[in-house]
Structures are given as structure tokens and as C-alpha cells.
Write a structure and sequence with these properties.
With about 400 residues, this protein is α+β, with helices and mostly antiparallel strands. The protein is built from ten helices and 21 strands. The strands form four sheets. Strands 1, 2, 3, 15, 16, 19 and 20 form a seven-stranded antiparallel β-sheet that branches. Strands 5, 6, 7, 8, 9 and 10 form a six-stranded antiparallel β-sheet that branches.
């Protein structure tokens, strides 16, 4: 049995591309723990009375349930585990089938077969398109951010956890997936067929804007992000920009050690985050003091798709008054999951810790409020406008020396 630790962005803000956003993108911090053998017999003995009821029910079903088909014991077992997990009431603790567990581990490797969208949840229990990944099949389709996905290949996604829903959308490169979509603009429903492609997560985009402001977008905190961010900063700083815009919009999260390394680039000293476990133990993560962008005037763009690792970085910058947050309130994913691979290669993601900003602010369930709120409307998206980026640029031009 193997284990890895991840701060998954959210009920998972999951992302069909990045997805981290997924047992819920989503995601920060990944550690490898020693494999361990659970003494199932010992567990059963400890909870003998509780297990007695389970086995009584199992045997009655096995002996007496009328069905024209053989019982699916794997489905029964998985259903029992899901019921146990659901009873905990934690959206970030989840059971994963072997295929879902494989998908979960692929998210931060940078590529997979899919349609190129980041996914959240609608208020009425369906999937919502949060963003489109450049170069993906969805970018040239009728899908737009804000649209709801109601069905995948005829299967309703209503009430499905994000990992289950994403596993329906992903698939081998070159295969077709049909989505029943409810458009955000007018509520009209439309079936959209997309051919899956190998999605390459862009990770980092950097350039110098016409105003002389440097712009760096970070799509997720994967295992390539640290070096790509450093390279982007080094290249941008050579132009001696007047300021820097760090774009964390629709970034679902990633590895814990990566967000620490990237935070080092912007914060010279002090706390980056506080991590607390259920037994009261506390770990305080601090900056190393080796960053190259600790003095440049800074703005961070955030929105409802900024989750987990994105919130760690944004929260640290905000608490240290290192830069202004502009945009919309962030997702609110402030817990740490450990995912165990079980004996049949399925997985169990379990919340074990919560994290807090340097000023000891809890983020889970509430998110971060921006210093300057700027909404990005559906009309803006359709017209190709980006008022959040425009406000960040004008803020730096007004305040930077």
C-alpha cells in the first residue's frame, strides 16, 4: 500500500485538465510515506460489534437477495466504502476507484487525455466550466466559462463527486465525448461533441505588457512549476519592469513543497503558512530568503477558481502586505489530504490537516477576499475584455515608483 499527500483543491474544484482541482485541484503538497500494512484483523477485533452488523447485512443479501444476475461483490464493497466515507461529511475525503486513483496521480504530471477545461460545481449540483485551457479541444468549441455540464455521453453528472464526473470526461486521445451543456448566457441546452486530445498543461506564461509591466501566469503548482517560474522571473526582470502581475486565476493548486519554493521568490522572510493536524501538532513553514522578486511592486490576480496552493501563496502575499490581491474571492480550500493506495489499486483520500495564512487566518470554506474587487462578467468574456488584468495594470502604474 502506498501513500501520497496532496492539498487537493476542492470539492474539488477539480479540473479536467489540471484537476488538481479535484479531490478537488486539486491540491497542494505531495509527500511519499513509507508503505504500511494495515492489520485488518486487528481493526475488525477492535470494532467487532460494529462490523458484526455489516457482515450480518452482507450475508443476508448474499443468501436471500433475489436477482436474475450474479451479485457484483466489487460494486458492493466499493458502495460500502463510499457510504463510510460519505458519513464523514467532508467533501475532500473520498474513495477512488483504481481508474480514478490513476487519474488523480496523473494530474500533476502535466499531460493526459481530455478536453481542456477546468471544472467546478454549480449551485444545483452539476459541473461548471471554470476555464478553458489554451490549445485544448474545448477552446474552439461552443463551451464558455460559466456553462454547466449536465450529462456526459448520456450519463447525468448531477450529484456525482468531481472525481467520478471527471473520469467520464477524460479518455484516450482521439476518442469522442458528448456533453449536454446548459449555456450561462441564456440557459439554453446544447449537445456538444468533442474529440479528446492529449492535454499539455501550460504551467507558466510570462511576457512584458505594452505598459512595461511584467505579467506571469501560473496555471498550477506541478513538479515543473518552480523552475519555470524562476525562468520566467529571470527573463522578465532583465527588462527592468515597473511592476509584476502574478496571475493565479483558475489555478486549482498543486504540491505543497512547490508553493513553498515559489513563495520564496516573492517573500523575503517570515511565515508562508501554518499547518495544523487533528492532534494539535503545528508546522510553521517559513521563507528561505533566496527569492529574486522580493522587492518588485506586485499584484496578484485571483478568482473563484484560485484554490489550495494558490490561496497559500496569495494569503502569504496579502498578510505580508507584499502586494495587492485584485479580482474575486478565492475558492476556499484549506485542508490537506493523504491518499492511500489500497490493495486492489483503488484509493482513499483522507483529510488529515488544515492550513492557515501567516496571520493565522483560516481559508477553508471562506476563501480570501481581494483587496480590490473586480468582477469578470459573462459579457466581458464574450467581448474578450479582461477588466481584472486592466485594473492590476493601472494599479501598478499608479502606485509603483
Amino acid at each position: 500500500m502506498s501513500t501520497w499527500q496532496k492539498w487537493a483543491p476542492a470539492a474539488l474544484l477539480a479540473s479536467v485538465v489540471a484537476a488538481t482541482m479535484f479531490v478537488a485541484g486539486f491540491g497542494v503538497g505531495r509527500y511519499v510515506f513509507p508503505s504500511q500494512d494495515f492489520l485488518v484483523e486487528g481493526v475488525a477485533a477492535k470494532h467487532e460489534e460494529q462490523f458484526r452488523v455489516f457482515w450480518e447485512a452482507w450475508r443476508i443479501i448474499e443468501d436471500e437477495f433475489y436477482s436474475e444476475e450474479s451479485l457484483d461483490y466489487q460494486a458492493m464493497t466499493y458502495g460500502a466504502v463510499r457510504g463510510m466515507v460519505d458519513s464523514l461529511g467532508d467533501p475532500h475525503t473520498a474513495f477512488l476507484t483504481p481508474a480514478q486513483a490513476d487519474m488523480f496521480s496523473q494530474d500533476l504530471e502535466g499531460s493526459f487525455g481530455g478536453i481542456g477545461v477546468t471544472i467546478g460545481s454549480t449551485e444545483d449540483g452539476y459541473l461548471q466550466v471554470v476555464g478553458l485551457i489554451p490549445g485544448g479541444p474545448a477552446e474552439d468549441s461552443a463551451l464558455t466559462p460559466g456553462d454547466a455540464i449536465l450529462e456526459v455521453d448520456g450519463t447525468s453528472v448531477h450529484g456525482l463527486d468531481t472525481t467520478q464526473a471527471i473520469s467520464l470526461i477524460r479518455g484516450p486521445e482521439g476518442t469522442t465525448v458528448r456533453l449536454l451543456v446548459r449555456h450561462a448566457t441564456d440557459g439554453a441546452q446544447e449537445e456538444i461533441a468533442l474529440t479528446r486530445a492529449m492535454i499539455q498543461i501550460p504551467t507558466v506564461e510570462s511576457r512584458i505588457l505594452s505598459s512595461g509591466i511584467a505579467y506571469l501566469r501560473l496555471w498550477e503548482f506541478n513538479d515543473r512549476a518552480t523552475s519555470l517560474v524562476r525562468n520566467g522571473l529571470e527573463s522578465s526582470l532583465q527588462s527592468e519592469p515597473r511592476g509584476l502581475i502574478l496571475d493565479l486565476r483558475s489555478n486549482p493548486g498543486g504540491y505543497l513543497h512547490v508553493v513553498e519554493q515559489i513563495a520564496d521568490e516573492f517573500i523575503a522572510e517570515g511565515l508562508i503558512l501554518i499547518e495544523r493536524s487533528s492532534d494539535g501538532q503545528e508546522t510553521r513553514h517559513t521563507a528561505s530568503g533566496r527569492g529574486i522578486a522580493t522587492d518588485i511592486p506586485l499584484v496578484v490576480l485571483v478568482d473563484g477558481g484560485s484554490a489550495s496552493a494558490s490561496e497559500i501563496l496569495a494569503g502569504a502575499i496579502q498578510d505580508h502586505e507584499r502586494g495587492a490581491l485584485i479580482g474575486e474571492r478565492t475558492y476556499g480550500k484549506g485542508s490537506v489530504q493523504v491518499t492511500e493506495r489500497l490493495s486492489d489499486n483503488s484509493g482513499l483520500a483522507v483529510t488529515i490537516r488544515r492550513w492557515y495564512t501567516p496571520a493565522d487566518r483560516a481559508i477553508d470554506g471562506t476563501g480570501l477576499a481581494p483587496d480590490i474587487e473586480v468582477l469578470l462578467t459573462q459579457d466581458d468574456l464574450e467581448a474578450g475584455r479582461d477588466p481584472q488584468l486592466e485594473r492590476a495594470e493601472s494599479y501598478l502604474l499608479e502606485t509603483a515608483p
